[in-house]
């Protein structure tokens, strides 16, 4: 098993059809103990319970530094160590740039970008002291192609910020044995976009995807597994596309 003896925190893992929960299931199946953190506390606990009694679910708003610190302290108390952090929590909003007001801008940056900083900062002292750790951050094809299919320009900006933040952390933490990487999914079928793609729009989207299908959460979970495991021990600062070839 690829993650035997390892422990992992996954943010945004409460949704049963989401990328976070697929990642949690994959990690658990590979021997990891998993802590699911989510704004939805009941959902996080329920998701963890589905994985088995050795896993935990914790309510945590990643936009709040104190909440991130408290959640990480609680995971350390339960597991004794943290080997992997998957920064997966995120929100989107499909509006045009001329409709973005300050409140929307701030909320999208806070969850998608500031949350990555706060949760990473919460685990970094522990990982540095152990000289070991893997942090994987979710970005999006929206950051790369300029404009999401379903997200607005504020979402593209936040997800592009994640790429810069992750690379800077990778550079600063490499000497401490901590790796930091990003994953850029294309269009993955989850609750974030459920019911938002018309059949007409789907045909248009598929025309731009060489593999001719939308992604599923497991497609992204598999990449997080690679980044969490020692298979990627010489990989840091990388950006891995999971988009069916959308950017070729
Ligand atoms: P999802 O809605 O199922 O998952 C997002 C999770 O984040 C939810 O469980 C939600 O409760 C949680 N969350 C929201 N705000 C939070 C906060 N402040 N603190 C803690 N948790 C919070 O959707 P998903 O598609 O699985 O999204 C997971 C990640 O993947 C997101 O960051 C999203 O931007 C990113 N992403 C998704 C796609 C896609 O096509 N689905 C593509 C690229 C990137």
Automatic annotation (TrEMBL):
One of its GO terms (biological process) is fatty acid elongation. InterPro entries: NAD(P)-bd_dom_sf, Sc_DH/Rdtase_CS, SDR_fam. SUPFAM superfamilies: NAD(P)-binding Rossmann-fold domains (SSF51735). PROSITE patterns: ADH_SHORT. GO terms for molecular function: oxidoreductase activity, acting on the CH-OH group of donors, NAD or NADP as acceptor. Belongs to the short-chain dehydrogenases/reductases (SDR) family. This is SDR family NAD(P)-dependent oxidoreductase.
